[in-house]
Specification:
38% of the residues lie in helices and 25% in strands. It is of the alpha+beta class. The chain has one domain: Sandwich (Jelly Rolls), CATH 2.60.120.10. The termini are far apart.
């Protein structure tokens, strides 16, 4: 567990978590429990936060700054997948599926992030099972959005027959 936090730090982190879509529908006591296990980290410009292929043991919420999610192409060049700002989260997949990191995340400006370690998160979810329901709702919504986006790419254009009278 992270070190003891001041009341101000706990409340500040609760506000940060509440602004994040993954946590926005959670109750204050759930956010407080998550805040208590969070660790605040600062990353300088171009510093890697997580690295593709590494073991994932934590997820992150952007408290301030901006980060870039990228993967290496076949020739080793980075491909930007997404730019994330305040309130965004990343790294959640590795925490829940115990797979290697699927992407590298670098700070594109000095950034402050909250880190939630997987083991601590497991403990909090065990003590507050309703948190897992909120995670499932958010992840389901995210999968639906991805399915919709993929469907739009693969869908042939609609051809309507001419109306004859």
């Amino acid at each position: 567990m992270p070190e003891r936090k001041s009341v101000f730090e706990v409340l500040d982190n609760v506000v940060t978590l509440k602004a994040c879509p993954l946590f926005s529908t959670m109750k204050v006591h759930e956010l407080r429990a998550l805040s208590m296990i969070s660790e605040t980290m600062v990353f300088k410009v171009w510093e890697e936060i997580v690295t593709e292929g590494d073991v994932g043991d934590a997820m992150y919420i952007v408290k301030s700054g901006r980060v870039r999610v990228e993967r290496k192409s076949e020739n080793g060049e980075p491909i930007t997948l997404e730019e994330l700002g305040v309130g965004s989260y990343f790294g959640e997949m590795s925490v829940f599926d115990a797979e290697l990191r699927s992407a590298t995340v670098v700070a594109t400006e000095t950034s402050v992030v909250l880190r939630l370690k997987g083991d601590d998160l497991d403990f909090v979810i065990t003590e507050n099972p309703s948190i897992s329901v909120e995670f499932l709702r958010t992840f389901s919504r995210k999968i639906r959005e991805l399915n919709d986006r993929l469907g739009e790419k693969d869908r042939p254009p609609v051809v309507r027959p001419a109306v004859t009278q």
